[in-house]
Specification:
about 425 residues, mainly alpha, 16 helices, about 75% helix, disordered C terminus, DUF418 domain-containing protein, Bact_Transport_Assoc
Length: about 425
């Protein structure tokens, strides 16, 4: 049971539950790269890239969950602004430095698709734009999404002019076999694969996800300044409309995205352009659906919220456990499991992390990664300790309000992925 603060704690618990839920989506989206390293270098076929499992993952999961984390990053930044006051600039700089270092280490040692370095860089832009009014921030985010979609459409048009532009990638079995051998060959062999692949995929992440992430940062900034989640009654009447747009427009857009990704060439780029807009609608429907479910079935929030409260630790933990299953760090099962088995591994990892998160928070205030980021951010912190009254009188004076509003308090973690 997660400690709560009446009367607003259930609302904030719902937000933590969204983070916990989104962690599951991130895991499902990423685990295919661990399961088939040949896909990571663009030469193989991921185990979940064909058949019903692939269609489900591509339609309902891919590109849908990192936007939720990006939105929450922007929202949490406004909470930090309130808590840190005039120190927000220097503390944000240090936090972004910590995220960048953590991201590079994570990328080279565990997960080549790491997004923390991107968040660190975009966090600096968000810091520079922190004084934007909510309406201006929303307009800027819409412009980013719109311009990005138009660029994808223009690229699709140029592809039509290329006679060979509609051809799909040609698989290279030898390169795929080499990638799999490196990943499963042992720790040093896996590290070699990481060093060869991480820079290339990091560039893909920055180009492919950077504009959308920045737009969602700005949407989160606007929502945080408007206290959207602190005052849910202001948007409760919009729930039916959000659900209709998400499932009525966003879901068909996701289906088109999946279909077009198999067409290659210009049509694939058109699908990416459409998905730039419709993925936001479907993601919003996911969030609203879960918040409504948490209100009606509190046990769901109780199960998911602990993971959301230590989301950064869980994000790294997913990579650790996936590496132990699929790489030379552990069982070296890459390329060995069927699609349904890969999803079974994802479910098992998720269940383990949910359980560990709940256990950890019964004994500690924050997760290990969150504690490290806080230490760097504030340049002072005590080791993780049992929950209880703070020894800092100033911190104790604001602890109740920070917990009630979901604020990061005196340097608490922004609950990043």
């Amino acid at each position: 049971m997660i400690p709560t603060v009446a009367p607003t704690s259930s609302r904030i618990q719902g937000i933590d539950a969204v983070r916990g839920f989104a962690l599951g989506g991130i895991l499902v989206a990423n685990i295919g790269f661990f399961a088939d390293p040949g896909y990571s270098v663009g030469v193989g076929t991921m185990p979940i890239s064909e058949g019903p499992v692939a269609l489900t993952v591509s339609t309902l999961v891919l590109t849908k969950f990192y936007v939720i984390f990006s939105f929450l990053f922007g929202y949490s930044f406004t909470l930090q602004m309130r808590a840190w006051g005039e120190k927000v600039r220097v503390r944000t700089l240090r936090r972004c430095l910590g995220l960048a270092v953590l991201g590079v280490v994570h990328g080279f040692l565990l997960w080549i698709g790491d997004i923390l370095t991107l968040y660190a860089a975009l966090g600096l832009l968000l810091l520079a734009m922190r004084n934007l009014r909510p309406r201006t921030a929303v307009k800027a985010g819409c412009w980013i999404i719109g311009v990005t979609a138009v660029l994808w459409l223009l690229l699709a048009g140029l592809t039509l002019l290329d006679p060979g532009g509609g051809a799909g990638p040609v698989p290279d079995p030898a390169a795929a076999a080499r990638a799999e051998a490196l990943v499963t060959g042992g720790p040093l062999s896996f590290l070699r694969f990481q060093a060869e692949t991480y820079p290339m995929l990091a560039m893909f992440v920055w180009i492919g996800q950077g504009p959308m992430a920045m737009a969602l940062f700005l949407f989160g900034l606007a929502a945080g300044k408007s206290r959207l989640f602190e005052e849910p009654e202001r948007w409760a009447h919009l729930v039916p409309r959000i659900l209709w747009l998400g499932y009525g427009v966003g879901l068909p857009g996701a289906i088109f995205f999946t279909w077009s990704s198999q067409a290659y060439g210009a049509m694939e780029l058109v699908g990416v352009a459409v998905n730039n807009v419709t993925s936001l609608l479907l993601s919003a429907a996911y969030v609203v659906t879960l918040l409504e479910l948490v209100k009606r079935v509190p046990a769901v929030g109780n199960a998911l919220a602990p993971a959301g409260m230590v989301a950064a630790s869980n994000y790294i933990g997913q990579s650790v456990l996936a590496c132990l299953v699929f790489t030379g760090y552990g069982l070296a099962l890459a390329g060995e499991l069927a699609p349904t088995a890969v999803m079974g591994v994802a479910a098992a990892i998720y269940a383990v992390l949910l359980t560990l998160s709940a256990w950890w928070l019964r004994h500690h205030r924050r997760g290990p990664v969150e504690w490290g980021l806080r230490r760097l951010t504030l340049l002072s912190a005590t080791p993780p300790r049992p929950r209880g009254p703070s020894s800092d009188p100033a911190a104790g004076a604001t602890a109740g309000a920070d917990a009630a509003l979901g604020r990061p308090g005196r340097g608490d973690d922004p609950r990043l992925p």
